[in-house]
Amino acid sequence: MKEFPTPAMRRNWFTLCMLVSKDFKKKYRRSALGVVWSVLNPLLMMAVLALVFSNFIKFADIPNFPMYLILGNTIFALMSDSTRDGMASILESTSLIKKIRIEKLIFPLEKVLFHLLNFCFSLVAVLLVMIFFRIMPTANVLWLPLLMLYAVLFSAGLSMLLAAAAVYFRDVLHLWSVVITAWTYATPLFYPIEILPAWMQKAEFFNPMYHYVTYFRDIFLYGNTPGLTENLVCLAFGLASFAIGFAVFRKLEGKFILYV
Amino acid sequence: MPEVVNTSNLGADLDAADNRETMIKVDHVGMMFNIASAQLNSLKEYAIAAVRRELAFKEFWALDDISFEVKKGDVYGIMGTNGSGKSTILKIIAGVLEPTRGKCTIHGKIAPLIELGAGFDLELTARENIYLNGALLGYSKKFIDQNFDEIVEFSEVSKFLDMPMKNYSSGMVARIAFAIATIMVPDILIVDEVLSVGDFMFRQKCERRIQELIRDHGVTVLIVSHSNEQVRRLCNKAIWIEKGHTRMIGTAEDVCRIYQLVGGRTGCAESEKVIMDTFENTDVNTSCVQCNAIYGDTKFGTSAKMAQAEQGHVDTVVYTPSEDHVQSLIATGLASALGAKMLTCAEQSVPDVTRQALEQLTPDNAVFVSCTLFQNPQKIAADLPKAPLHTHVITEGTSTRLSLAVFEFGRERGIWGDTCVISPEFCVGDQFAILPAATKLAAPLFFTSKKTVLDRDIIDVVKAHFKRALVLAGEEAINEGHLEPLRQAGVRIVRFIADNEHEANERIFDWLEEERIREGAGPVERLVVVNPRHPDDAFCVGNYAARNDALILLNNPSNLDYVASAIRQVQRFGGSIRTLDFVGDPSIFSDLDKTILHRIAASARLDAANGGR
After folding, report:
1. Which chain B residues have a beta carbon less than 8 Å from that of A18?
2. Which residues in chain B are classed under CATH 3.40.50.300?
3. Which residues does chain B have within 8 Å of residue A2's beta carbon, measured at their own beta carbons?
4. Which chain A residues have a beta carbon less than 8 Å from that of B115?
5. What is the predicted pLDDT for the residue at B379?
């Protein structure tokens, strides 16, 4: 009648896709605007921030400030959202992990993939802002897939690490939201890096998100071509994070079932 | 009393010549859980435990050295009580858990049915869930596409395919889950009590599907079940695991038979052996001993049935709520001393069976005995079909006061003998066992109250009116010091000290036998068997036992030590027992429970007949 399908990789990929589609359907089920929110949300966030930081609190004159904001926010959100959901992913899948033999890596990776999809929708918002402010894109936007790769590697690594840690210590769940808030302010998302004291400007070199945000603005707003060094730095952060996260996850996953 | 559950190996019946392909090989598997560190979920707790060096201490072996092999085409049952490690072994076989020790080797593809519907998201529609669940079970999209219709057809949900599953009934969810899980033909199918969900139509359908897989595709199946009958029907082999230890491996038939007999019951290994030997000894002709079951449809029905069992005019009926054993036993004592029938009722109303019994008995007098005040005894009396001429209501707030009031009521009528029974409230078993003597001697029952160990009032009454007191309960409840005032007043004290209820029953039997010998009574020919854990419908048994010259034997089938003790006591009468009356419906004494004592009594009788010849 039927036979067993597929090698493991293809099977896992299908599972991954089904889970992403599940998350996506659940996110917009019963909302009138549905998927439009994925575009609308970054736009509205940008509008609020632009209003606040160009009228009440003004750090410096940044040309094309709304564009500056939305670029930083969307790429940062990719990281913060996927790590937040990825971190809880194993704990949320307790019932499955306890009952079915399944590749556990799927769960944190699925969350990253889901937020990558959301990121793609927010690119539409970015496009709308560009049209509104008449910003001409250059050929440099073609670097975007590379940036996405870096950012996804980095986020996936963190997600795996946090997911594994959260299984053993639920504290991580609470702690991480604080870290994310601190990280938001430590990254020049709504202020120029120049307003920071000199030592902090130097320290920003070790902030991966600073590199990704800058990269994003370079290719979309300033029309700069990222240099080899910049690419290598971004890749290095991504790979390092992924390697550490993967190693830790693999080492700990065998005992997950005893703690979830 | 510590709960003892046997975990000794009862033997494995392995067919060495079986050269079919091995599908699952469980090789000396042990699974250890670390209870202490498994509960540390925060950094603080972990740090504290680390400092105190409490980490990794409390080891718990959920499975200890389990080995078995499942061959191709086997339908293998895994039996055991809750918490004995069945699910753990299944998880190890399914690859979800890694064993701490040993190895589990699998040949072939496994489809786990460990829990139906794991991975369903009830927000999504059935259609979406079929794909999602299929993916989680490792199917490809193409495979699900091809078999989608068949899944829908099996689960009978085609009309509701695009409705969110949270609106589904649990039966529908189970059907979809089962359909998805069994749509492919695996090499090994694992079924974990899934057949216990859903209605019986669904269960039948699932069983048919499983049998189809077994018959047409030669699938190897592993089934976990509590249900003896299910394992017997579906499986050819079985293993019984108890508290992580292998108890028995063999054909499903053998394992089921033994499991049904002693599985999940407490008691020591010797008791277990006695019971199994009895059970295996099937060639006893039991026709020489009569075996009856006495029970009504409800707990009220039993007493009504007993009261109606004999003919003749009834002068008095004692009437008591059966919710509480204390007042029921006091009432029983009164009823037997008065030569009255005893009926039970609910606190607030007269059950139909009781009403019918009253219609038939038409007594002249009715005595109401109750600890809590009857809401309105006159109303209940008026509610009766033919109101009795005289109604007496005895009601007091506590058991001590009630027993004294009942004594007073009887004293005015001069019904009591020169012996009384003193007992704390909790000795239900002893109270049952002593009933035949209490009935014959017309001995009132005095309950000591919880606060003072032996009340002044009781001491005074006993000193004034009795020559002998039968004192139930052990030293820890009533010590000798408490009884000193009675001794000084010349009251003879008889005690039945034992470690537990069934031993106390034996002591009481010893004493009753001595008494019988002293009186020159004949051998005991009848035993009334009562379960002290379910006394509800057994209160009226004292009268019945006394009238039939029977002794009351306590038996609690869920404790093997108890059963072994009951066996010993049946044997002690050396074959004089002709009749066994079991009080309680089949949930209290199953056919199996009855068969064991019946066989013992019969074989004792046959032995006596042969020895005498």
Report:
1. 131-132, 135-136
2. 22-109+186-264
3. 143, 146-147, 183-185
4. 95, 99
5. 63
Considering the entire predicted model, what is its pTM?
0.71
Q: Convert the pLDDT of each residue in B158-169 to its tens digit.
A: 888 888 888 888
Q: Is B140 on the interface with A (CB under 8 A)?
A: yes
Is A188 exposed, middle or buried, given 0-12, 13-18 or 19+ CB atoms closer than 10 A? buried
In a domain, A250, yes or no: yes
- CATH T-level fold of B22-109+186-264: Rossmann fold (3.40.50)
- Do B432 and B543 meet the contact criterion of CB atoms below 8 Å apart? no
Q: Tell me the pLDDT tens digit for each residue of A225-244.
A: 898 999 999 999 999 999 99
pLDDT at residue B1, as a whole number:
34
Contact residues of A toward B, CB < 8 A: 1-6, 10-11, 14-15, 17-19, 21-22, 25-26, 29, 95-102, 169-171, 254, 257-259
For residue A168, what are its two tokens? 């053993």
Q: Do B143 and A5 touch (CB under 8 A)?
A: yes
Domain annotation covers residue A144: yes
On whether residue A56 sits in a domain, the answer given is no
- The H or E element spanning position B29 is strand B22-34
Q: Among residues of chain B, what percentage have pLDDT more than 90?
A: 1
Cα dihedral B563, B565, B567, B570 in deg (nearest 10): -130
Q: Kindly determine whether residue A96 and residue B121, on different chains, have CB atoms separated by under 8 Å.
A: no
pLDDT winner (highest mean) among B170-184, B336-350, B355-369: B170-184
**CB-based contact B419:B407 (threshold 8 Å):** no
- Range of the structural domain that residue A113 is part of: 39-46+61-259
pLDDT cut 70: percent of chain B above it: 85
Is pLDDT of B474 > 60?
A: yes
pLDDT at B113: 64
Q: To the nearest whole number, what is the mean pLDDT of chain B? A: 80
Within a domain: A249: yes
Cross-chain CB nearest to B112 (options A17, A100, A259): A100
CA R_g for chain A: 20
Reported as a pLDDT band with limits 50, 70 and 90, residue B271 is confident
Task: Please tell me if residue B452 touches chain A, with a CB cutoff of 8 Å.
Answer: no
Q: What's the pLDDT score for residue B55?
A: 56
d(CA B295, CA B583): 6
Which residues lie closer than 8 Å to B201 by C-beta, 6 or more apart? none
CA B164, B168, B172, B177 dihedral sign is positive
Q: At residue B2, does pLDDT exceed 50?
A: no
Give the number of domains in chain A: 1
CB contact under 8 A, B140 and A26: no
